[in-house]
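Limitations
The structure tokens in this dataset are predictions for the assembled complex, not deposited experimental models. Users should treat interface geometry with appropriate caution, especially where small molecules or nucleic acid strands are included. An illustrative entry is reproduced here so readers can see what is and is not provided.
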Amino acid sequence: MITREEFARAQERTAATLAAAGIVITPEERASIEVADFGLNDLERIGLEIIVYVNTDRCCAKELVLFPGQICPQHRHPSIDLEPGKEETFRCRAGQVYLYLPGEATPNPKGFVPAERADAFTVWNEVILNPGEQYTLLPDTWHWFQGGPEGAIVSEFSTRSRDDADIFQDMQIQRAPEVAE
Amino acid sequence: MITREEFARAQERTAATLAAAGIVITPEERASIEVADFGLNDLERIGLEIIVYVNTDRCCAKELVLFPGQICPQHRHPSIDLEPGKEETFRCRAGQVYLYLPGEATPNPKGFVPAERADAFTVWNEVILNPGEQYTLLPDTWHWFQGGPEGAIVSEFSTRSRDDADIFQDMQIQRAPEVAE
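Predicted assembly:
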């Protein structure tokens, strides 16, 4: 649960981050910036700001904003019926993003997680993306990512997004945002 | 056929256009900027500069650059076997782009085409995209587009690109670029 004030502040900060990077959004997009706190009420540490440009049955594009050190928690996009899970490419546009994937754990990773939630981060193979760099993730791959010291703007190019189908490592997570009345 | 010099100049101009808009590309992407003159040897008027970020079996993202007044000529993306044709969203990032689609011809359109090729432009329903504005095109829809007075940068989010399957209105067009030795 996130308060209305916190939600509005996060939207404002997201809009300012995009504007500073020269990324233009429409007033409608500005008003519908998604602020995901994943139901953890710890937005500064675990959260993600999202602008969905397009999401059809076939493909999807979003702009993701991470505040400095903010984490999108570990999850995967499973196959549903006959449709393979979401394939996504993360392209860093500004700042820096630390992406974590299955594979050999990177020694001394740059990322850090809340101690009380450390169990919910099990993949530690690190890919650091600077502006202009990108990584394509195959369906159903566990991953999490974190904004660097100055945060990050990340373009996501993917197949259809079905957020409600995402599987999170942390059982406490609730993907659909709830804003306090 | 385009000369090596013209090709290199167009790449340089494209890179400068992106840099001016704060869009970062890698040195590898810089080196592989595609300059399409559609075999017409008239790049300033008919041509398109392209950076392919990702193009898998399932989805694709590109950055398109149009010089001022430059035209991507009329074409469509047909269905192939059981795969529906390419669905694409054009999102203007900088400058202005004039997009033309089937439907009622717009009176006094902003776009203009070379007189000797006017027959190859048959759809004149105009959509003007300013930065932050976008349009999603259904498969197999005839379309063409032109950079405004200051050119344009357009992000294209789509299903798989199969340029060799594109159908152009102008029979003289050859999609695969040829650079003079």
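Some entries come with short summary sentences. For this one: The interface with chain B takes residues 21-26, 29, 53-54, 56, 58-61, 84, 87, 89, 91, 93-94, 131-134, 136, 155, 157-159 of chain A (CB under 8 Å).
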